[in-house]
Amino acid sequence: MSGTFGTTTVQASVPLPTANVTNGNLRLWVRARDGAGNWGTAAAIDVLTSGTGVVSVGDGPKVGVGVRALALAVVVVLRSGDRHPRLAPLVGDERWFAQFTGATLLGAIGSAEVVPLLQPLLRKSDPRVARAAVVALGKIDDAAAARAVQTVLRAATGDLRKTVIDALVVERDPRVVPLLSRVIAESAPLGVDHVVVVEMVDALAKVGCDTAVPTLVTTSRVKRFFGGKKVKVLKEHAVDAMVRIGGTKAAAALDDLALSGDRALRRIVAQKRRSVS
Known about the structure:
The protein is α+β, with helices and mostly antiparallel strands. The protein is built from 12 helices and 6 strands.
C-alpha cells in the first residue's frame, strides 16, 4: 500500500492466486475500511483470465470509505507458478497505478527474470513508478539488477539521485546489500564513479546489516599512488559505515584494519573509534 491516509487517495494491491478459478470473465468486488472502522461501498473490477493467466484488467475502482479517505484499489489476479510473463501487460499499461502495482509484484517475485520488465519503469516520468521499480530491483540479487540501478545512479544528479538511494534503503531490507555491493564492485571508485561509490557505502551504513562488512573492508583498503583526497574519502566513509553498523563482525574487521591496514587507514580507524567512545 502507498500514499498517506487522510489525503485524496491511497493505493492498495492484492495478489490473488487463480489456480482454481474458471477461465473467462471474472468480476471481483472490493470495498475498503478507514482507520475508524467505517466500511465504504463495494465496487467491482472485471478481469479476463485464460489458461495462460490474466488477459486484461479493468479500471481500478475508487472505493469510498468516508469523507477524508478514498482508497484506489487495484486487484491483480495471478496464476501460481511462472508468474512474471503475465505481468508484462500490467507494467506496460499507461496508467501509473497499474505500473506501480506491477513493479511491486515483480519485486515480490524477486527473480533475475523480472529485471527486463522493471528496467523500462525506471525511465517513467511518474516518480511513484520509478521509485517502486528501484525498490523492486533492490530486492533482486543479480548482476543485471545492479547494472540497471548503477545506470540510473550515473545519470542522476542531486535530488533525483538522493531519491533513488532513499528508495533502496528506506525499508532497511538486508536483501539490498548484495545489489549495493555489486554496484560498488563494478564501479570505478577513484574515477568517474567516485561519488556513486561513496553514496553506496553510506547506503550500506543506513541499511545496517553486517553482511556488508566484507565489501566495506575491501573499499577501505583501496589505494593508489597520488590517489589524494578520493582515497581518503573512501577510507573514511567505509570505516564510518562499519562503526555505524556495529556488532561483533564489524568490530572484528575494524580490529584487523587497525593492525594490518596502511598508515592512513590505521589512523582513520583510531580516529573514528575515539569519536564514538
